[in-house]
Amino acid sequence: MQSDNEISLAEKVRRNLRRVIDPEIGINIVDLGLIYDVDVNEENDVQLLMTLTAPNCPYGDMILMESEFAIRSTEGVNLIQINLTFDPPWNPEIHVSDEAKYQMDKIFGDDQESIEKFQDIEDNGTVEDMIDYINNWGDEDRLADYGIKSDA
């Protein structure tokens, strides 16, 4: 295991960003693949390139703010710039870590239709729809309201 002196500042920033949890999915933003790049220059200025699960993510401002706080809490960081991009758009099949895919499978199952419904609610529903969807996963009657089948 590396000591703190051997770990790069970029890696320390990534570690702190793991503390930022996407409230809709319950998984940290690093494992979700929302962090595209962490660049640290010679002056220890950090430039973060990241995305959100959807352009109209209802928690986007909160995730950006928590990301900035996580970077600021990293010892040695000077200036911070966070760049938000949707190119390429977030794709769970490509960007999500294997560990996060496992966690998502526990939440949503491997039913592609359910995952697409989740993304549709995120794109077009309200925050309350999303919270209701997640809180009632496995409740067949509530899920039927969304046209979703559960393997619970």
Notes on the protein architecture:
- The chain is of the alpha+beta class.
- Helices cover 43% and strands 13% of the residues.
- It has seven helices and five strands.
- The chain has helices at 9-17, 60-72, 92-95, 98-108, 112-124, 127-135, 140-145; strands spanning 21-22, 27-28, 35-40, 46-50, 80-84.
- The strands form two sheets. The chain has a three-stranded mixed β-sheet with strand order 3-4-5, covered by helices on one side.
- A hairpin with a 4-residue loop joins strand 1 (21-22) and strand 2 (27-28).
- The radius of gyration is 17 Å and the shape is elongated.
Percent range for β-strand residues? 5-15%
Question: What share of the residues lie within helices?
Answer: 40-55%
Q: How far is the first residue's CA from the last residue's CA?
A: 39 Å
Number of strands: 5
Question: Rough shape?
Answer: elongated
Order of helices and strands: HEEEEHEHHHHH
Structural class: alpha+beta
List keywords for this structure.
152 residues, two-stranded antiparallel ribbon, 7 helices, 5 strands, elongated
Summarize the structure.
By secondary structure, this protein is an alpha+beta fold. Helix content is 43%, strand content 13%.
Compile the SSE list and pairings.
Layout: H1 9-17, E1 21-22, E2 27-28, E3 35-40, E4 46-50, H2 60-72, E5 80-84, H3 92-95, H4 98-108, H5 112-124, H6 127-135, H7 140-145
Parallel strand pairs: 4-5
Antiparallel strand pairs: 1-2, 3-4
